[in-house]
Design a protein that fits this description.
Blueprint: H1 2-35, H2 41-47, H3 51-54, E1 55-56, H4 69-73, H5 77-88, E2 104-105, E3 136-141, E4 158-159, E5 173-179, E6 195-201, E7 224-229, H6 237-241, H7 245-258, H8 307-314, H9 334-340, H10 343-352, H11 362-371, H12 381-392, E8 396-397, H13 405-416, H14 419-422, E9 427-428, E10 455-456, E11 464-465, E12 478-479, H15 489-493, H16 507-513, H17 523-530, H18 534-546
Parallel strand pairs: 1-8
Antiparallel strand pairs: 2-4, 3-7, 5-6, 9-10, 11-12
Helix pairs in contact: 5-12, 9-11, 13-18
């Protein structure tokens, strides 16, 4: 009762503060909008990065945290704030409504991975509790590029007693190595830059589980690769979800016809004329195919079964009605088999789970507990709905200073160089009758904000390409990262690191990594960029930081 009362009281205070804050902020937005009235029409439109229904003009440290106008217009402001609380609050094992974590987890809160609601930060060590550590470990079989099946797709390094983590994170080492490109990290005019990349080492004795494929075939330790993959930005994801599947399909067809990519397009997703793979959810409600658009690996389709909808379950292991199984290993039974035979776990299992005694055999009970597909529900339907209102309702910061002559010069060069081919500037959303493969939300559910017929400016084609970087992303295929709002990363998150593992500390480093390999799809563009004057290079950077 005490916890419930405290939560309701705090929510009332937050709701009142929210009303006061946004009542004042509307006036600020109005003045900002009036300030762009003199821009040419094409720049005025682009200033609204998230369209009129999805843009905030907040440029402070909270710029990534605002609700969209569509969220407020739909009367969902209070639900948004309740949902936000589930993103920010640390989870424990028994403090409702913020209980979860057991038996394994990756982080104890969402915001720990997304400081300031943005991307994570570059780290020099792997510790789950380090603030801003947005890294996910990528542990894979070098022979096939497949994830190690005895671990979860996003491996866990934290456990709740009496269980033990699949990986001992204290033994993980991250080394940041310097490297030179074929130009000696120098532009023709003499200006230099630095390039670094991470090497991750996990010794064999750090693994609690055997190193096996999903079919339980052993993987030799020397064939186990480890990479880092950082969290993606979460603002504007509802707008990305509103891009029609047919529009994304047309983008693939266009890039195939143009033939500019020396590595082609990922044949695992596109066969040259049609989808080779779409998003389905065979475990849950439907098998409908949806265009892949979320994560670097393009592993997710509709937002209602992507990004945060999954992270609130698998990062913190919080069960809900449509996610009642524990997030363990990819095989589903390997961790359970190991833990059920662990003397330490067997000794204390009933101490922590006194009501779980179905057979009287401790090993069997532990195994059944871990593999049970009907775990107690920890997140109510109402709480999850509010969480998704927040997730789908996050606004995109408006583009800034587009009328500045230097920014305009950079904008033109960005297009002339060919950057805008993969970093496609704009899309138009459709009816936004969104889907949910899990069946929790109905198509176009009125409980969530919608963004029909908006011109949005994410600066991504939502297609995968290969940059062929040193110690590259798993498989080499990486979705073009949206650039919108990234110029505010330093003020919002405390860091401005870029690329999938945050190896680029500046925009220049990110650009030059695009051309590090002669086999990169972006090589020709980077060769052109190198020949620009310093003033023009700076203009490109200033433009990128303005959108």
């Amino acid at each position: 009762m005490k916890n419930t009362f405290s939560f309701v009281a705090k929510m009332l205070c937050i709701s009142l503060a929210f009303t006061a804050f946004y009542g004042c902020k509307d006036d600020d937005n109005k003045s900002e909008q009036e300030a762009i009235a003199d821009l040419p029409e094409y720049l005025r439109i682009e200033t609204y990065a998230g369209g009129e229904l999805g843009t905030t003009f907040n440029t402070t440290s909270t710029a990534y945290e605002d609700p969209t106008p569509a969220t407020e217009d739909a009367g969902l402001a209070t639900a948004f704030k309740y949902g936000e609380y589930f993103f920010e609050r640390p989870y424990t094992t028994n403090n409702r409504p913020f209980n979860g974590l057991g038996p394994l987890y990756i982080r104890n809160s969402c915001i720990a991975c997304h400081p300031g609601y943005g991307h994570g930060r570059r780290m020099t060590r792997y510790r789950a509790d380090d603030w801003g550590n947005g890294y996910l470990l990528v542990v894979y079989d070098k022979r096939t590029d497949a994830y190690v099946g005895s671990l979860s797709g996003m491996p866990q390094t934290k456990a709740v007693a009496p269980f033990k983590a699949p990986i001992d994170e204290t033994k993980i080492e991250i080394a940041w190595n310097s490297i030179s490109d074929e130009w000696g990290n120098k532009f023709p005019d003499g200006e230099t830059y630095d390039l670094i990349y991470p090497e991750v080492t996990i010794p064999e004795d750090a693994y609690y589980v055997p190193l096996q494929t999903t079919a339980k075939e052993d993987i030799p330790y020397d064939q186990v690769g480890v990479l880092l993959e950082g969290t993606i930005g979460i603002y504007g994801t509802g707008l990305i979800d509103a891009i029609p599947d047919d529009s994304i399909k047309a983008q693939y067809a266009k890039e195939t016809k143009d033939g500019y990519m020396k590595n082609g397009l990922n044949p695992g997703i596109w066969n040259g004329s049609d989808w080779a793979k779409t998003y389905t959810n065979k475990v849950e409600a439907t098998n409908m195919g949806h265009a892949l658009r979320f994560t670097y690996a393009l592993s997710r389709g509709p937002l209602q079964d992507a990004a945060g909808a999954n992270a609130i379950w698998n990062i913190t292991n919080v069960n809900r009605r449509t996610k009642q199984a524990l997030y363990l290993d990819l095989n589903g039974t390997i961790y359970a088999s190991v833990a059920s035979q662990d003397p330490d776990v067997k000794k204390d299992f009933y101490r922590y789970f006194p009501d779980w005694n179905k057979t009287g055999d401790t090993a069997t009970d532990i195994y059944n507990f871990l593999t049970n597909k009907e775990q107690p529900i920890e997140m109510t339907d109402e709480d999850y709905t509010n969480f998704m209102v927040w997730h789908r309702g996050l606004a995109v910061p408006a583009a800034r200073n587009l009328g500045d002559p230097t920014v305009q010069r950079g904008r033109q060069l960005f297009r002339d160089l060919g950057c805008a081919y993969c970093h496609r500037p704009s899309w138009t959303t459709g009816e936004d009758n969104f889907t949910d493969p899990t069946g929790f939300f109905e198509d176009g559910d009125s409980r969530l904000p919608k963004y029909p017929h908006q011109i949005i400016w994410p600066y991504s084609d939502y297609v995968q390409h290969k940059l062929m970087m040193k110690n590259d992303i798993r498989t080499g295929w990486c979705r073009t990262t949206p650039l919108w709002g990234r110029g505010l990363s330093q003020i919002c998150t405390g860091a401005a690191d870029r690329l999938h593992d945050y190896r680029a500390r500046t925009v220049i480093e990110a650009i030059m990594w695009h051309g590090w390999s002669p086999e990169s799809d972006a090589r020709q563009t980077i060769e052109k960029f190198r020949e620009l004057s310093k003033a023009d290079r700076d203009a490109v950077v200033k433009f990128i930081e303005s959108i």
